[in-house]
Amino acid sequence: MKTISIIFLSILFSSFCFSQNIISHKQKTPSNKALREIVLNTVRTQVLIKHHQSVLFEVICMNQYKNYIWFRGNALKKDGRPIEISDDEAFDCCHVEALLKKINGHWTLIEFGDFSTDAWWVDLWKKYKLPKKMF
Fold first, then answer.
1. Tens digits of per-residue pLDDT, 60-98?
2. Per DSSP, what are the bridge partners of residue 66?
3. Which of 41, 45, 93, 126 is least enclosed by beta carbons within 10 angstroms?
4. Cβ contacts of 76 within 8 Å, gap of 6 or more
């Protein structure tokens, strides 16, 4: 009985020590307000540079694992209208995805995709050795 208890406690302890703690920041709270603002502004700046339009985001997913954050959301113009995109290329409006990494204390955009017609991000978990659940 003592051996079984020790084995059980060892397994329980190791599951806590090696669990993958993914923190969701989808909902704004007082504790994550500043972090969400930094992430959203970083992604928003990339959309502004690429499409010359200021946007707001409907957050679908914002998960943090250690020093990585995965963002997925829908973009709208600040007045609530859909984004205008040139018809020169295929697009699927208006979803945006981004992977950020905290480097030297600053959240840096390391992967970005907007209005893509495919799931360009499906193998990012392998590339950066992140848990699949994060995405």
1. 999 999 999 999 999 999 888 878 777 666 677 889 999
2. none
3. 126
4. 55, 56, 57, 58, 82, 83, 94
**Number of C-beta neighbours around residue 5 at 10 A:** 9
Total-model pTM? 0.80
Identity of the amino acid at 36: R
Q: Give the sheet arrangement for strand 106-114, strand by strand.
A: 22-24, 55-65, 68-77, 95-103, 106-114
The DSSP annotation for 112-123 comes to EEES-SS-TTTT
Find out whether 13 and 6 touch, Cβ atoms under 8 Å.
no
pLDDT at 10: 45
CB hemisphere CA count around 110 (13 angstroms)? 15
| Higher per-residue pLDDT: 8 or 44 | 44
